[in-house]
Design goal:
alpha/beta, 8 strands
């Protein structure tokens, strides 16, 4: 069923195991949206949601986590990227765990990924029209400062979209969506604090004062977005999936069992809330 609504996938690195569970529940119930937004690692999960490959999202989180080609200090030293771009966007989807490009291409959803323009320090939303051809847009959205190189697209240099807009609820509203579903990777009590490695980031990006300021104020925008989402929920315009308890899985988690447990939490939450989601989407 295609709903006239938007869905947002938050980032959070390996906390995306929760997202993978929600995705499988959505796919089981054939829930589809006219608009899809992905930020940071959420952009990667969104691609699997759009290709409708149940089980693939959690495999990507767990199957290669100890493969040094996936992410490692060795990669960072050799290439400037902790995550091997060729491994993530070529070897895995074309050889190890084939991606269904054709199904994704036929998916009617308009797919946008959040990025930040390093030079202007402004957030942008790149329209991914063809995942096979536009995969570097997804790569840009998940490229974290210090552990990834800036990604150049059309002469613009981008990094992780979570810096400017982790939860693009306003973008969904601006696109005309009267209803938005959000898949978050932190529990309801979570509020973001000041970036603890800000001095290190400031040292590494001293040429970009606007970009540094954006990172320094990220927690303010994030927490304000949570308040906006809460208001949209009360008004019946937003529906939120989120972990029921604080998440102990780290951004660069390597414990497969912890990630699988978080995936099961997501899947169970998704299945439990599916009747309420359908009622929300079908209510006039």
């Amino acid at each position: 069923m295609l709903y006239k609504a938007g869905i947002i996938f938050e980032g959070g690195g390996m906390r995306g195991a929760y997202t993978a569970g929600i995705i499988d529940a959505l796919l089981e119930h054939d829930i589809n949206f006219e608009y899809c937004y992905g930020v940071s690692s959420g952009a990667t999960h969104a691609t699997t949601y759009l290709s409708r490959q149940k089980g693939r999202a959690i495999r990507l989180v767990t199957d290669y986590v100890r493969d040094k080609r996936y992410f490692s200090i060795r990669n960072l030293i050799k290439t400037g990227n902790m995550f091997d771009v060729d491994f993530l966007f070529n070897i895995i989807p074309r050889q190890l765990d084939p991606y269904d490009y054709e199904t994704a291409k036929k998916n009617p959803a308009k797919f946008y990924v959040g990025v930040i323009n390093v030079d202007t320090a402004e957030g942008e939303y790149l329209h991914v029209k063809n995942i096979e051809e536009d995969y570097m847009m997804v790569c840009a959205s998940m490229s974290l400062p210090l552990i990834a190189k800036k990604v150049t697209i059309n002469e613009n240099r981008y990094l992780d979209g979570g810096i400017s807009d982790s939860l693009p609820i306003q973008r969904s509203i601006d696109d005309g969506n009267k209803k938005t579903v959000l898949v978050l990777t932190q529990d309801a009590a979570y509020r973001k604090g000041i970036n603890k490695i800000l001095p290190l980031i400031a040292l590494g990006y001293w040429k970009y004062p606007g970009f540094i300021k954006k990172i320094a104020t990220r927690h303010i925008r994030y927490n304000a977005a949570l308040e906006q989402i809460a208001e949209e929920e009360k008004a019946g315009r937003a529906f939120v999936f989120r972990p029921k308890k604080p998440v102990t899985v780290g951004r660069l988690e390597m414990n497969k069992e912890k990630m699988l447990a978080l995936y099961r939490d997501g899947y169970e939450d998704g299945m439990e809330l599916m009747p309420k989601l359908k009622a929300f989407l079908e209510e006039e």
